[in-house]
From TrEMBL:
GO terms for molecular function: DNA binding; DNA-binding transcription factor activity. This is Metalloregulator ArsR/SmtB family transcription factor. Transmembrane segments: none annotated. It comes from Paenibacillus aurantius. Pfam families: HTH_5. Signal peptide: none annotated.
Amino acid sequence: MARASSKPDVFQAIADPTRRSLLKLLDERELPVNAISGHYPMSRTAVSKHLRILADAGLVKERKVGRETRYRFDPEPLLELKRWLAYYERFWENRLSALKRYVEEDGEEESGSPPSLTPLAGGQEKEPPNR
């Protein structure tokens, strides 16, 4: 199914480790692209492309200061990701709770079954003591 828009969404934007690193770098301060690119072993153009993807997803805001553009992190779009993850967290918690109930119920059913033989030294088996 084709997407109506070619703009990257939050999920696509944070899929790349470099972009996640950029968000962390911009978490505490606003920086121009020249200062940002000094933190990475890639060209300024490559850093600008990553910043463009983050800006298109709404995770980075741009502000002109004189001739330079400064970038800052905007966490608001991450709320979509948080809601998505919360759904799956509840999903897995429910699945694990159901598995736990199943295992515990199965264990209760087995406790009424005849005892199994336990191995002795030398390969012989004996029945466990009666309870």
